[in-house]
Specification:
The complex is a heterodimer of chains A (461) and B (305).
Chain A lengths: L17 H24 E5 L5 E5 L1 H31 L7 H61 L8 H18 L3 H20 L7 H21 L1 H4 L5 E2 L18 H4 L7 H27 L1 H11 L1 H6 L4 H27 L1 E2 L6 H14 L4 H17 L6 H5 L9 H15 L31
Antiparallel strand pairs in A: 1-2, 3-4
Helix pairs in contact in A: 1-2, 3-9, 3-12, 3-13, 3-14, 4-5, 4-6, 4-12, 5-12, 9-10, 9-12, 10-12, 13-14, 14-16
Chain B lengths: L1 H31 L6 H22 L5 H28 L8 H22 L4 E2 L7 E7 L2 E6 H23 L1 H11 L1 H6 L4 H27 L1 E2 L5 H14 L4 H21 L5 H15 L14
Antiparallel strand pairs in B: 1-4, 2-3
Helix pairs in contact in B: 1-5, 1-8, 1-9, 1-10, 2-3, 2-4, 2-8, 2-9, 3-8, 5-6, 5-8, 6-8, 9-10, 9-11, 10-11
The chains are: A mainly alpha (461), B mainly alpha (305).
C-alpha cells in the first residue's frame, strides 16, 4: 500500500495492493488444489485384469492450480483496477453507427446466409465445401430454427419448456416412419410432421396449464424424457436403441440426388457431386428457418401474439383482462411444437438415420440455452446465440493444431460440451437477460422505441 | 407376498438414497427459491470422490477394516463435495441472486452439463466398477425357493441414513445455523435486518446439501459398486420428484417423498414393467405437480397481486 503513496489523492483507490493480491491468489490456488485434487489429481483406470486402480496426475494438477493462481493474481493486479477505472468513466452515448448497423443488420445477415454456399464453394473448393456447409451451415441453421420455434413458447409466451426436443423427435419419427412404410414424399410429410408435433404439443400442454416457471420446466422435462423412454422401449414401432436407418432422402421436386441417370446431376447435365444435395438441404433449412422467423414476426402483430406477450408479462393481469389463458398457452405450445416437427422431419431427411440418442435432454437444454442466452423474445439474439454456441462447439472439431501443443492424444472434441456448459454459466453471469435484452414493441404510439430490459417484466411463465 | 416384502426392502433402500438427494433440492429451493439443477451431478461427483477415496484406502494403504473404510470414505466424500458445491454457489449462483428469474436456472443447467462433462473428460467415459465392499445377508423368510433377504449393505444404508438424518435434523432444528436458515427461508431481508449473515447462511445451505448428496453418493457406490459420469441426471430428476411429492421446502416431506419414489419405482419394476420404471417416476412428478402442486407436506403457494 505504501509504495505509491506519492500519487494524487483521488487516485488512491486505484492503487493495487500487492500483498493482498498475493494472499488472494494464494488462497485461490489452495482452494483450486483442494477442489481438483480428487478428480484431476487421481485417475481411475481399469488395469489388464479389469480391476480399477488409481494412478496420479500430479503435473497436470499442479499446472492447473498454477494457471488458476497466476490468473487470479493477474486479475487482481491488472484487470480489476482497469475495470474499476472504466466503471468510473461516464457511459458514452450510443454512437450513430450503431443505429445504422442495427437497421442494416438483418438484411445484411439474410443476404450473407443466402450467398454462403457459393462463397464456401469458391473458397474451399467442391471437395471441402460439404463439411463447411454441413457442420457450419445446416447444423447451425437447424438450431436457429429450433431456437426460433422455442422462442415462441419461451420468449413470447414465457412458458419455460425443457422438453422441446420431444416435438423434434415426433417430427423426425413421423417423417421416418411414414416415408419408409408408405413411401410418401418429403413435401407431403413435412406438414404432416408439423401437424402431428403440434397435436402432441397440445396433448402435453393440457396437463401443465396450471403450472409455471420452474415447475413447468421440470414437468416438460419429464414429458420429454417419457417420450424418449417410449421411443427406446417401443421396439415394434421405433426399433428401439438401434434406431431407424435407410430413411428416404428428400428429392428436388421429384428428382433424387443420386448418381443415376434420373439423378439431379444427370438431369441438369452436371457432373455428379454430393455437394448438390448439401446445397439443396442448406437452402431447404434456410427457407424453413426464415419461415419460422417470418411467421413469428407476423404472429406478434396478431391478437394471439399480443396475448402471448401479455401472458409472459403478467398472467393474472392477463386473465383479469379477459384473455383466455388456456387457448393462449395451448396455441403457443402447438405452434412452437409445429416448427420443432418441421425441423425434426428435416433432420430425419438429412441424416437418413435417427435413434433416440439424438433426442436427449441435452438437446432440449441446448435449445433453451440458446433462447435464454440470446435474449428471450429477441430473434436476432437467438440466431446469434445459436451461431455462437453451436458454431463454437463445431469449431472445436477443427482445432487440430492444438495437438501440436498438448500432444497427439489430445482430442479437442471431447471438451465441446464441457465448454458449452461453462459458456452457459459465464454468459448468464455476464448478461443475465441474454445477449439482446431489449424488446421491440409491436404496438407503439408515435415513434418506435426499443424497450430497455429494466422495464420488462420477469417472464414468470 | 414374499416378493412384495423383498421389493419393500429394496424400495426403502433406494428411497433412502433418493431422500438424501431430495433434501438438497428442497433446502436450496426453500432458501433461494431455485431448482438447483446441478444437484444430481453434484451427487454423481460425490460418488466419484468416494470411489477415489475407496481405492486410495484399499489399494494404496491396504486398509481392510470395513467400518474404518466406510467412515473415512464418507467423511472425505462429504468434505470434498461440500467444497465443490460451495465453489459452485459462489461462482455460478451468487452473482445471479436477485437477478432475472430464469438466469439461475440456466446457470444451473450449464453447471450440470459442465460437471458431467468434467468428470467424463477427467475420469473417462467408461463405467467404473469396484468389487462389493460389504457382502452377505440376513435371510428373513424362507418360502419354497424364494428367500426374502436383507443384505448387510442395505442395513448399513438404513443405519447411516437414519443416523446422519438425525444429525442433520439436529443442525436445522437446534443450532444457530439452522435458526438462521429458517429465518432466511421466511424472509431474507428481515433476517438480514436482525443480524443474520444471509450470504453465509446460503453458502452453508449449499454445503449441507452437498454433504447429504455425498452420503447418498457414497451409499450409492457401496450399493451398486458402479458409477459413471452420466449417473447424475436420472437420480437427480427422481430426487427432485421426491422433493416435489413431499412438498418442496418441507424437510420431512423430502425424506418421505424419497421413500415413496423408491417404493413406487421398485414396485413398478416388479409388477408392471422394468423398461418403463423411469416413466413411473416421471409420471408421478407430472401427476403430483398437476393435482397436488404443494405436495404432501408443503404449504400452498398463495400468489398475492
Amino acid at each position: 500500500m505504501s509504495k505509491k503513496s506519492d500519487m494524487a489523492p483521488h487516485a488512491a483507490d486505484k492503487r493495487v495492493d500487492i500483498g493482498r493480491a498475493l494472499k488472494d491468489a494464494g488462497l485461490t490456488a489452495l482452494l483450486s488444489f483442494a477442489l481438483f485434487l480428487p478428480l484431476i489429481g487421481f485417475l481411475t483406470v481399469q488395469d489388464f485384469s479389469n480391476t480399477l486402480v488409481l494412478t496420479t496426475r500430479w503435473p497436470l494438477l499442479f499446472s492447473i492450480v498454477a494457471v488458476i493462481g497466476i490468473g487470479r493474481l493477474a486479475y487482481a493486479l491488472f484487470l480489476a483496477p482497469w475495470l474499476a477505472a472504466r466503471a468510473h468513466r461516464p457511459a458514452a452515448p450510443p454512437a450513430a453507427w450503431r443505429a445504422v448497423a442495427g437497421r442494416w443488420f438483418v438484411p445484411f445477415a439474410i443476404g450473407f446466409v443466402v450467398v454462403y454456399p457459393p462463397l464456401v464453394i469458391y473458397t474451399a473448393g467442391w471437395g471441402g465445401a460439404v463439411k463447411w456447409l454441413d457442420n457450419f451451415g445446416i447444423q447451425i441453421l437447424i438450431y436457429v430454427m429450433l431456437g426460433w420455434g422455442l422462442n415462441i413458447v419461451v420468449g413470447l409466451a414465457g412458458l419455460l419448456d425443457l422438453g422441446y426436443v420431444a416435438f423434434y423427435a415426433v417430427g423426425a419419427y413421423s417423417y421416418a416412419l411414414f416415408a419408409k412404410e408408405f413411401g410418401l414424399s418429403f413435401w407431403i410429410l413435412l406438414p404432416i410432421a408439423g401437424v402431428l408435433a403440434s397435436f402432441w404439443g397440445i396433448l402435453l400442454g393440457f396437463p401443465v396449464l396450471r403450472l409455471r416457471g420452474d415447475y413447468l420446466a421440470i414437468v416438460t422435462l419429464a414429458f420429454g424424457e417419457i417420450i424418449r423412454i417410449v421411443l427406446i422401449n417401443f421396439v415394434d414401432l421405433t426399433n428401439g436403441y438401434a434406431g431407424i436407418s435407410g430413411i428416404p432422402r428428400p428429392t428436388f421436386f421429384g428428382i433424387p440426388f443420386t448418381a443415376n441417370e434420373d439423378g439431379f446431376a444427370a438431369v441438369f447435365g452436371l457432373e455428379f457431386s454430393p455437394v448438390y444435395r448439401t446445397i439443396f438441404l442448406y437452402y431447404l433449412i434456410l427457407a424453413l428457418a426464415l419461415l419460422t422467423a417470418f411467421v413469428t414476426v407476423r404472429l406478434r402483430r396478431l391478437p394471439v401474439g399480443r396475448a402471448w406477450e401479455a401472458l409472459r408479462e403478467d398472467e393474472i393481469a392477463c386473465r383479469s383482462l379477459g384473455i383466455n389463458t388456456t387457448n393462449t398457452k395451448l396455441t403457443a405450445f402447438a405452434i412452437g411444437a409445429m416448427f420443432a416437427g418441421f425441423a425434426g422431419s428435416f433432420f430425419a431427411a438429412r441424416q437418413g438415420f435417427i435413434s433416440p440418442d439424438s433426442f436427449t435432454f441435452m438437446e432440449s437444454a441446448s435449445i433453451v440455452a440458446i433462447v435464454v442466452l440470446g435474449g428471450m423474445g429477441s430473434q436476432i439474439g437467438v440466431a446469434i446465440a445459436a451461431i455462437a454456441m453451436i458454431g463454437g462447439t463445431e469449431i472445436m472439431r477443427e482445432l487440430d493444431f492444438l495437438k501440436v501443443i498438448f500432444g497427439a492424444t489430445f482430442d479437442p472434441t471431447q471438451y465441446r460440451m464441457l465448454l458449452f456448459g461453462f459458456a452457459m454459466v459465464l454468459i448468464m453471469i455476464w448478461k443475465p437477460r441474454g445477449l439482446i435484452s431489449t424488446r421491440d414493441p409491436s404496438v407503439f404510439l408515435k415513434e418506435r422505441k426499443t424497450i430497455s430490459s429494466d422495464l420488462v417484466g420477469e417472464g414468470r411463465g | 407376498m414374499e416378493v412384495f416384502l423383498q421389493q419393500l426392502i429394496n424400495g426403502i433402500t433406494l428411497g433412502s438414497i433418493y431422500g438424501l438427494i431430495a433434501l438438497g433440492y428442497t433446502m436450496v429451493f426453500g432458501i433461494i427459491g431455485m431448482v438447483n439443477f446441478a444437484h444430481g451431478d453434484v451427487f454423481m461427483v460425490s460418488a466419484f470422490i468416494a470411489l477415489i477415496a475407496l481405492l486410495l484406502l484399499t489399494t494404496w494403504l491396504g486398509i481392510t477394516s470395513i467400518a474404518l473404510i466406510l467412515l473415512v470414505v464418507l467423511i472425505v466424500a462429504m468434505l470434498f463435495t461440500a467444497l465443490v458445491n460451495w465453489v459452485i454457489e459462489r461462482v455460478a449462483y451468487r452473482p445471479l441472486r436477485g437477478s432475472f428469474r430464469l438466469a439461475p436456472l440456466i446457470s444451473a443447467i450449464g453447471m450440470s452439463i459442465f460437471l458431467s462433462n468434467f468428470v467424463q473428460v477427467t475420469q473417462g467415459p467408461r463405467n467404473k466398477s469396484v468389487s462389493p465392499l460389504v457382502q452377505g445377508e440376513f435371510v428373513l423368510l424362507r418360502h419354497n425357493d424364494f428367500n426374502v433377504t436383507l443384505p448387510y449393505k442395505y442395513l448399513i444404508i438404513w443405519v447411516v441414513t437414519a443416523v446422519l438424518l438425525g444429525c442433520f435434523w439436529y443442525i436445522v432444528a437446534k443450532t444457530p445455523l439452522g435458526r438462521a436458515q429458517r429465518a432466511c427461508e421466511q424472509d431474507q431481508r428481515m433476517a438480514a435486518l436482525v443480524g443474520v449473515d444471509v450470504d453465509r447462511t446460503i453458502s452453508m445451505t449449499f454445503v449441507i446439501a452437498a454433504a447429504l448428496a455425498a452420503i447418498a453418493g457414497t451409499l450409492y457406490l457401496m450399493n451398486y459398486g458402479v458409477v459413471s459420469f452420466a449417473d447424475g441426471f436420472t437420480p437427480g430428476v427422481k430426487a427432485f420428484t421426491a422433493a416435489v411429492l413431499g412438498g418442496i421446502g418441507s424437510l420431512p416431506g423430502a425424506v418421505i417423498g424419497g421413500l415413496l419414489i423408491g417404493l413406487i419405482e421398485t414396485m413398478w419394476s416388479n409388477y408392471v414393467s422394468i423398461d418403463y420404471k423411469d416413466v413411473a417416476a416421471f409420471s408421478v412428478l407430472a401427476i403430483t405437480l398437476i393435482f397436488l402442486p404443494q405436495g404432501l407436506f408443503g404449504r400452498p403457494d398463495v400468489e398475492k397481486v
